[in-house]
Amino acid sequence: MSHNTFGHLFRVTTWGESHGPALGCVVDGCPPGLRFTLAELQVWLDKRKPGQSRFVTQRREDDLVKVLSGVMLDADGETMTTTGTPISMLIENTDQRSKDYGEIARQYRPGHADYTYDLKYGIRDYRGGGRSSARETAARVAAGGIARLVVPGVTVRGALVQIGKHKIDRSNWDWDQVGQNPFFSPDAAIVPVWEEYLDGIRKAGSSIGAVIEVIAEGVPAGLGAPIYSKLDQDIASLLMSINAVKGVEIGNGFAAAETSGEDNADEMRMGNDGTPIFLSNNAGGILGGISTGQPIVARFAVKPTSSILTERQSIDADGKNVDVRTKGRHDPCVGIRAVPIGEAMVACAIADHYLRDRGQTGRLK
Amino acid sequence: MSHNTFGHLFRVTTWGESHGPALGCVVDGCPPGLRFTLAELQVWLDKRKPGQSRFVTQRREDDLVKVLSGVMLDADGETMTTTGTPISMLIENTDQRSKDYGEIARQYRPGHADYTYDLKYGIRDYRGGGRSSARETAARVAAGGIARLVVPGVTVRGALVQIGKHKIDRSNWDWDQVGQNPFFSPDAAIVPVWEEYLDGIRKAGSSIGAVIEVIAEGVPAGLGAPIYSKLDQDIASLLMSINAVKGVEIGNGFAAAETSGEDNADEMRMGNDGTPIFLSNNAGGILGGISTGQPIVARFAVKPTSSILTERQSIDADGKNVDVRTKGRHDPCVGIRAVPIGEAMVACAIADHYLRDRGQTGRLK
Amino acid sequence: MSHNTFGHLFRVTTWGESHGPALGCVVDGCPPGLRFTLAELQVWLDKRKPGQSRFVTQRREDDLVKVLSGVMLDADGETMTTTGTPISMLIENTDQRSKDYGEIARQYRPGHADYTYDLKYGIRDYRGGGRSSARETAARVAAGGIARLVVPGVTVRGALVQIGKHKIDRSNWDWDQVGQNPFFSPDAAIVPVWEEYLDGIRKAGSSIGAVIEVIAEGVPAGLGAPIYSKLDQDIASLLMSINAVKGVEIGNGFAAAETSGEDNADEMRMGNDGTPIFLSNNAGGILGGISTGQPIVARFAVKPTSSILTERQSIDADGKNVDVRTKGRHDPCVGIRAVPIGEAMVACAIADHYLRDRGQTGRLK
Amino acid sequence: MSHNTFGHLFRVTTWGESHGPALGCVVDGCPPGLRFTLAELQVWLDKRKPGQSRFVTQRREDDLVKVLSGVMLDADGETMTTTGTPISMLIENTDQRSKDYGEIARQYRPGHADYTYDLKYGIRDYRGGGRSSARETAARVAAGGIARLVVPGVTVRGALVQIGKHKIDRSNWDWDQVGQNPFFSPDAAIVPVWEEYLDGIRKAGSSIGAVIEVIAEGVPAGLGAPIYSKLDQDIASLLMSINAVKGVEIGNGFAAAETSGEDNADEMRMGNDGTPIFLSNNAGGILGGISTGQPIVARFAVKPTSSILTERQSIDADGKNVDVRTKGRHDPCVGIRAVPIGEAMVACAIADHYLRDRGQTGRLK
Lengths: 365, 365, 365, 365
What we know:
Chain A is α+β, with helices and mostly antiparallel strands. Chain A is built from eight helices and 19 strands. In chain A, about 65% of the residues are buried.
């Protein structure tokens, strides 16, 4: 399992399990001189933390992030300045209900990593999913909070665009709505539909998948690499690394398969101010692996939560047939909390490519 | 552009432009003792090479691969045995029509990397797309030919499953059909439909997108990593690195968003022979980033060829508005030739993870 | 500063400054199923910790290591078993005397990283040297403690072989002596000489350099790589990464320059038990970058502590000439405490190459 | 053997054996817009090529380098401009005397990689040492030729400073002498001494070791990284990767062990022109892993050529005792031809750190 790090110059290493004392990450390569407060960083973790509505898991974790290294504190006792050294962040696990894991410790829950972890490692921390728990993503969100500081002027925002078969009406898109409902929906009209739909799923102890869209604006043109480590490739790779993600698209994505060359071409014209203008953005802001200066658009599909109340057939570690029913506090739609995680991954990819382009210390800023 | 390498223990570095003397790759980390002939390797390149039907570009390249290092030749003068040292392979560019690049050298063709390369590097090899030419993928296919030798018993096969809105009927899936038609279609029934459809597009000088599916069978369980460098993440990353790819799916992919937890669960039972059996494969053969032993299933969407005969609005390197029309020999649907490329990428990802799991020299084989 | 990680499959990321709340490391890639207690791990940190004799700094740090992730605790509450997930370790900084850093915050101490850090980053944590403090090496020693568990049967031991011009008599070499004196000397006879010599240096507020030798026994043959990432290269690289190290040797090292081909050849004969025997070990256990099965022998030179009481000419951050005199608690010979650090680095390099050879989970063990 | 690449942003991958059709390298990450001619590149290869005096091997190789990708040719047909894409370079093996390798194919020559390669890989290209042949270093020298173009104003020069016990008189150091004798000696006075000494060794079929010093001037301050990937660490690592190297030093190196803190301190003063001046350079131009702007000074020790005419005891692949005597054309002192190789390695390390600091495209130049 020697691959808990991502990034080439902006490097993030995460560690920790669901039920250990803490989890966290080390952000290596952050340029010096960036300033932030703990409160500003906590905002991102609060977006992801559980228990914020009846549509997400009722596990209660404060997810308070601590910064252990890599910064100097101002005289105000609040503002931190990065020094260029590795930033170690830690989040304590506070809601570890002691319980009898007897059964779950041996059973392979369908859709979970139980079977493959045991197969590969011969040992597995079964408590709350161990390393495969979505709690790991709290560390990603913390890292994303630092990444957002790296590229001046960049805004990375995500939204939920589909739950089950219910898609938003894109003509209703309003970023201001995203913070106004428990789904990160940019379409106010679909909120009651989703509420009713998810209430049904939740009460049935079932779950459902979702699609998230992340848009990064203000990304300088010229970030990326032509062949391998394309900017879109690295974004896709990081989104695909999120638990439960099964598909990733850039720009018009799979719809490109049904599009003609004429319609797919993002035509250009010189603007009145002498800067080039793209007349459309089917490419999702990236051509040949390199950013164009347009908004970067990525989408990813999240499968339904594997933990459900309905019995499913499976086997256990002793090779016996069992019927598994996962009790406990689960997200009926993990896609909701995946919104800030997707944002964090896109922010990290952009920060990494920015530093590759501009240098370790981001001097050109 | 310091990222022309992929893989962690099975590492591939590609080099070369469309119109230079040659292109090629170095495959580093191939275990010793694997045996093959040049003819066996050439099979994969022949699948990808241009000019094989009226539905692909009429550029004529033999794409004959040479092996310059990393092997010892048997007394038969044909069979090579890998020694564990880097395998350098080279493919000459033979069809470089000399022509006047005057206009194209300055114009930014919509959908191509022209604009972003110039922006990032300030210089660009405009001949045939230079480094961004799909010719680079010949080197990937050669590397994939070596990768196929690494894991005993693995079969990696691809097929075209959609052109434009025309999808195959999956109940017709027959691997034997794939080699019998110019589209790598596993569904014989759709071949005449695609022929007529693509003839129209070809004659109009237009182009269309496509979807490819790659399936790897015989992959040992236990390959992959839990968090970053998940096997599905690495497959998605490599598929996304192929020119013109805009979306990637594993298993049921985006359809997972519309699926309930009950339906999505791949249930298990112990087989009569004492080995575990999965009753379905929504996961696409990977759970928690680690292979389950089931077939690995990946799909990717390719956008329509950007080079079309219809004029599109753009700008040139001098910041002037121009109308671009790309003459020359182009693929009406680049997705067709992407089939062997996708296979190669999946084969490389599996070989890499096999060596991470079993060690540099693949001793456990 | 995006390079606080080393290793390819056994990867160590360290973080932390001298005067922050804590420092630590994440050990990624440790195979599952290794067992240890905190007390066993602490042994290595105790070897390195300050204040153990009058010949090392009197700073008082307990350097108690905590394990935050990557293990499961036995019912005995003491024994831990690695799960294959990243092992996060943390050491609190307890002896952070609050003091006025006014002068030192602006002055560039000769031999220290003050000047270059300010030049590169424009900001610098001047408290106790910040990131450049030798306290960072506590994290390395913790990582080395884990590395020692990876390869069965390996023993990695270090000794001080030279202080100033005073070299040990190699014919007196006795490993049992190493733990019996404050210098890690394998030669009991030199201990009083070094005591008197170092007392003089200490009282004068001066400092002196040293040479350390590390020997690894029981290393399986076949670890390493032929060209880049040679085992000796990776050992040299890690030893050179230790603060204050200015030279590294493998086997007979610089003496090889004065040796003839006849004398340098390590001749071989088949042993009576049918295994090959080397008749000498000028190579230091590595041929062509790959371990031979003989003991691996590495030496490194440490410069004198830069912090001395004598005034030295320098400049400050404002470009003014200053005379610097470093008060405080310093090691008269940092080479002494470099012994366990050198051991840790060699242990990590061997563990990494073992996993490259045998695979991520070390299955062949 | 998955590690034939070095560098992080300026990446070099070498390939090829002694007796295959060719060897070469791919230089990835070279910034765009650098200009050179093939003749300028060939100069460096000519410095390394065999057969130039009676003191080096009489094997005859022209070592003509070809550039296959990554450049555009000027109208003059000579000047090339880098485009930022990977530069593939190839050198043909022309002097492959066909001979009977019967004995040598099975015998393990002492000091060579024969034993360890067979042990690790179970197969070995015994022709001329295969991959472990010093011919591999021709590719390094070609890469170094490109690296020299990356950092404006940098000069990297090497010299032989010791053969056997015969050291140069450093007070005679004259760079102009280096090109005037067959030893790359900067001290004219020692040339006749070395001639007579080496003639004796050559005629006896023996060999002797040497020490090489490489000095890089004009390196900008601020290159490097504080903890791992220190500039001196990366230089040491690359020098140690050269065949037959057993020791590496930076600045005063092992002599630092015998130096007091007072003497070792490189004092500073502000110069009349307002720039800081170092009054000495014990540090070898690097403090805390980061360049100071002073000349970078590195030394490395090369063991005597293992191929000698005197019989040495060894074993063969069948586990039988044999006496090995290596006939053929060998260097009596491989250290001589190591001078341009050492230069190349230092140039590559500097180029890599320059790009890490300034960005992929070296924009700040």
